[in-house]
Model the fold of this input.
Amino acid sequence: MSNGKPLLVLWRNLYFVHALVRDELNERLAAEAGCTLVEHDLMAWLAASPGRRLRMLDLARRLRITPGGLTRVADRLVERGWLIREPPPANRREVYAVLTEPGVGVLRSARRVYARVLRETLARHLDARELDALAGLLAKLLDGLADVYASESPQRLVRQGRVL
Done:
């Protein structure tokens, strides 16, 4: 791609696919599972973590939201009983988010909705070979961008089995 136009078109297409699928996920999760996409993703990161717990700061980084934004999301989940906050005894400035059993149940239901939306949006338009090719290309891009993410590289976390 010698000039920027094909890259710009590629980026816009990738952006719009992401936006359309994200919006559909958010709408369907809210309607069918009782949680938003960011709430689902928060619970999914916790479920994939040892002890179903993460420091709030690490969780905010993984969700790509501000600590203040995470606090608001976490407050809603605490009210519903899906999450508890746990300060370690030795460090009162640090707080962990911990997924509760009711949260695990909600996440299980939400995962079925999530998978169905992905089948209806992505798998409906691409065959298995195309999906594999796309997955490989995106993994390659994530590997190339890993320096940006350092230890929180999405691809590194996927390889460790810590995937949303």
Q: What stands out?
A: The CA atoms of residues 15 and 72 lie 26 Å apart. The mean pLDDT is 90.
